[in-house]
Write a structure and sequence with these properties.
This protein has 123 residues and is mainly alpha-helical. 64% of the residues lie in helices and 11% in strands. The chain is built from six helices and three strands, in the order H-E-H-H-E-E-H-H-H.
Length: 123
């Protein structure tokens, strides 16, 4: 599952809003705002791909995300690890920690998160 850049922008807004009418989605974009027809075309494709659903309310549709945000990002990160780091999480972690300009506090926070995950999996 892969979203185009424009689909990802719309999904980010839908994940944030949870449910939205066309006017709500267009409002979320910075100026200059995309045309309603542009958003409608992208939404139609996303509905066909089963990423977005809608409820018809009279003449308007209320859209909602079907694609789960956490699952999408998990798959995205896994694909990056697979393609760029030969399926090696340690290579990814090494690259991330040495090239992301993290502060000592951020590295310690990562260590705390990893230690907590290890403890949870051990129990």
């Amino acid at each position: 599952m892969s979203l185009t850049k424009s689909e990802e922008q719309i999904m980010k807004h839908l994940w944030k809003l949870e449910r939205a009418f066309m006017k709500d989605l267009v409002e979320e974009f910075p100026d200059p705002k995309p045309a309603y027809t542009t958003i409608a075309t992208i939404l139609t494709r996303m509905i066909e791909k089963k990423y977005v659903g809608f409820v018809q309310q009279g003449k308007v549709r209320e859209y909602y995300p079907i694609l789960n945000r956490t699952e999408y990002f998990k798959n995205h990160v896994n694909a990056i690890i697979s393609v760029f780091f030969n399926d090696s999480v340690s290579q990814f972690a090494s690259f991330f920690t040495s090239n992301a300009d993290l502060t000592i506090e951020q590295l310690q926070e990562l260590r705390t998160l990893i230690d907590a995950e290890i403890n949870q999996k051990e129990t």
